[in-house]
Amino acid sequence: MKSASLATALLIGVLTAAPSPAMAQPSPYEEAVAARLAGDPGRAVELLEPWVAANPQDLDARVQLGYALLAVNETDAAAAEFRFVLAGAPDYVDAAQGLALIEQRRGVPTVRQGFFYVEGAISDLSQGREGWSEVAAGALVPLSATVSSNLRATHYRRFGIEDAELAIGATVQAAANSWFTFNGSITPSADFRPEWSAGVGVEQRLTNSANPLVVGFDASFQRFPVQDVLLLSPVVTQYFDDGRYSITARANAIRAGGGSFRLGTSVRADHYARERLRFFLGAATGPDTDLGVVTNTTALFAGTEFPLTRTISMTASAAHEWRDDDLDRTEGRLGLRFGF
I need a labelling partner for 103 at 20 to 30 A (CA). Which of 25, 119, 159, 247 fits? Predict the structure, then answer.
């Protein structure tokens, strides 16, 4: 009995001394993930770098390290982690999104991921005129590593008149730093939107760095019910702070009917805070042809995109437009974007 009691006591002592699963210490990987999610990416990097060195095939850890490095502006190192993961697991969505974010910051149009979206807009007009409304749905579909297509269907209502427009386009990466765009649209039985339109564009990244200079040129022809409109538009974008900010300046030369060209300009600033979280604001002045009739306008606008889930984002924007036809306009726009 005495030996049995002693054995029981020893067993109890061992069990009480051993840590329970609930009391087990988290691994460095778990500590790093918690630190990154808590807003301490520097600590996450300190924990993950030795972990990845000891476990080089831990793809989850390498993705976490990539996002932590991105948060402390170590963009090149972050890109290397994401590329390593995608080389072994091409369908790893988080790694693809991380690399796409870096490419977006660096002025690289990316076709790695697809998405579809819905959005709507309501405009309030001055002088008690009936407001405008707009509802659209569309998608960007990657066709290959260098080609993507986009589709959009839009229902417009202006002054009690309705038009439905269908648009299609494509982006082609012709070289490492060169892209071409093609687009067209058709509006059956058009009242105020273009009966049809066609456009082309080119974009060239001039400096292959974390803060590139990107230049482009767009040209389009639109056949409205009342007249034809030709639009020529050079554009320049400069990135700053390792791609976290950009400023875009655009000139617009519009020729309506047989008239002369009329000039306008716009400037826009973007801040890419983190994955799928961005803010923008800007101003524009010059001729507008939204209704097929050229009207001089001045506008201020701002907006944001922010994530709701890992694959769904919300977009929101607001704008105010002063028009020479005395119909000043205030617009609010909301949308949802679904990645796939």
Answer: 119
214 and 287 belong to one structural domain: yes
Query: For residue 55, what are its two tokens?
Result: 């476990």
pLDDT digits (tens, 9 = 90+) for 284-321: 999 887 766 778 899 999 999 998 987 899 999 999 99
Give, in order, the Cα–Cα distances in Å from 118 to each of 272, 314, 334.
22, 10, 9
**82 vs 16, 21, 26, 92, 102, CA distance in Å?**
44, 33, 25, 9, 10
Among 105, 133, 162, the domain boundary falls at 105
Quote the pLDDT of residue 107: 61
Give me the number of domains the chain comprises.
Answer: 2
Q: Is 64:48 a contact under the CB 8 Å cutoff?
A: yes
Quick one: DSSP state of residue 131?
P
Question: What pLDDT is attached to residue 109?
Answer: 59
**Residue 17 burial (10 A CB sphere; 0-12, 13-18, 19+):** exposed
Question: Going by C-beta distance under 8 Å and a sequence separation of 6 or more, which residues neighbour residue 16?
Answer: none
Quick one: how far is CA 110 from the chain centroid?
10
Report DSSP letters for 11-41, one per residue.
HHHHHHHSPPGGGPPPPHHHHHHHHHHTT-H
- Of 172, 178, 174, 170, the closest CA to residue 204 belongs to 178
Q: Which domain holds residue 129?
A: 115-339
The last residue of a domain, from among 52, 73, 105: 105
63 neighbors 85 (Cβ within 8 angstroms): yes
Q: Is 98 among the domain residues? A: yes
Residue 17 lies in a domain: no
DSSP label of 70? H
